Amino acid sequence: MQNVNQDVLKISPYLPGKPIEELERERGIVDAVKLASNENPRGPSDAVRQAIRDATDYLSRYPDGSAYRLRGLIAERLEVSPDQLTFGNGSDEVLKIAGRAVLSPGDKGLVDEHCFIVYPITILGCNAEPIRVASNGWSHDLQAIADAIDERTRIVYLANPNNPTGTWFSHIEFVNFMARVPDDVWVVLDEAYHEYACTQLTYPDGVELLESYSNLIVTRTFSKVYGLAALRVGYAVSSPEIAELMNRVRQPFNVNSIALAAAEAALRDDSYINESIELNIAGMATISQGLTELGLNCMPSIGNFITFEVGERAGDIYDAMLNRGVVVRPIANYDMPDHLRVTVGLPDENERFLNALEASM
Hints:
With 361 residues, the chain is α/β, with parallel strands linked by helices. It is built from 13 helices and 13 strands.
């Protein structure tokens, strides 16, 4: 096509998981279970549901563009200054805001070869060049990424743990990496699964490292353990200087009022979050054991999902599981055609997944 941004033509659109309603309509089945998008299977807490109902009284008003109350709650919880925060319509938007703030045409952004697909989409959308760095055993090769930084590099996107692999890097590995990154290269540390992952003792807390690295940006989300994926609330924590730049390109009113109210209630409901984490730990153990008993290799994960290898029949197995009403995620578009990814569900959903997988192999 002519007269369009040519870099846009290089972008492969993000492919979301198949909706339950579409699956049931296509396959003629009922009571399907979706374990494809790394959501909290419990959904939001009762307190959040009430906050959403209360927020509907103000739908004729624009949302608080500064996210004043939520900003204060997060700043207090993380022990950071409110001016270190940037809010987005999900952390996906915050990732894009960071790219827009620092990338110019001809610049480079570095990503892992099996990275979350939004990273290269963002870089290309800024007319910059995404550089994929080969993984080391499915994990980020931080040494190779540091080696790949050159005078055109402006940003590095890292996910810890990574989606779709579930692999992670330790505190010392990350500190060693940051020591090699020039101060004028932004490092975006995507911690979408932080609340699940922080149970791992060697896992680095990016927010605690912000004082040491002025070029570090940490992104988090309410879409995972908080159960608010449909409402799209994410945020970045960075230096005030970077946050000020990011807020220059952030759209006004980009987080809606219902989402803000829900996030505030979710952040206060510690018991619900702790229960969700415990449920996830138990579910991870059940699924890992079940995959092992089926003779399948699965990647150790500290998120709320597990990626496992089924071989060249991955597409056929995925399709057979759809016919049994279980939706998992094929990840061939992540250059992993022999793997599938499953989200940890409720106990009965996990058992149903394992039974459907065994019957589909």
